[in-house]
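Protein: UbiA family prenyltransferase
Species: Nocardioides jiangsuensis
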Amino acid sequence: MKYRKPRGQTISLVLAAHPVSAAAMTAVVTLAAGLSGRPALECLLVAATVLSGQVTVGWLDDVLDRHRDKQAGRLDRPVALGWVDPGTVTFAIAVVVLLLVPLSVANGTYAGVAHLTAVGSVWLYHLWLKRTALSWLPYAVSFGLLPAFLSYGGLGGGMHGSPPTIAMTVLAALLGIGVHFLTVLPDLVQDKETGVRHLPLRIALRTGAPKLLLVSVIWTALVSAGIVTAALTVGLGQ
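Structure follows.
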């Protein structure tokens, strides 16, 4: 493995959380909350909730994949590089989960259950389904629950809002599948070498990566356009 100068524990923990993807996901969901008419305080709660969940997902990924990342010579994975101990990252996950549960429930009971289930679904992806042909399923479930998290959301525990529209739920799930394909495509070579046989790799071996990338981009763009159209017509909640 090539050498990179070690970072401090705090910086290493931040980098291990996949900060770019965590921030992007947080920004998108928070923006959606704002566009749906939620007040500023509730949007801040949404941001804190989503960011907490995304941080645990990034950390879990780095801990579970540390041996594969080391084998592949990844220079962007602090745990594989030895900058931070896996036990430290695991402890950090436990600490943030203690915040994640009350933060999720603070959005409302149904919203909290939807968000915790969405996070748990992505955990399941990293724990097991990432290596199978069902790798798309956790992304579909996780993204498909986001409209429920937003439509049922409100400030404080209890029941708020209304069920999400079927159109928004289905489109969000389809968007999750597209995001899954786009995020794993850059690592196809590493995944093939380390035995991670997720669905995108299985398809790419038959069609070729460039063609799959094109289809994935078109799929994601069309679904995103569908979400915007649905938001302007049927709306988020029933």
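Remarks: Residues 40-64 form the longest helix (25 residues).
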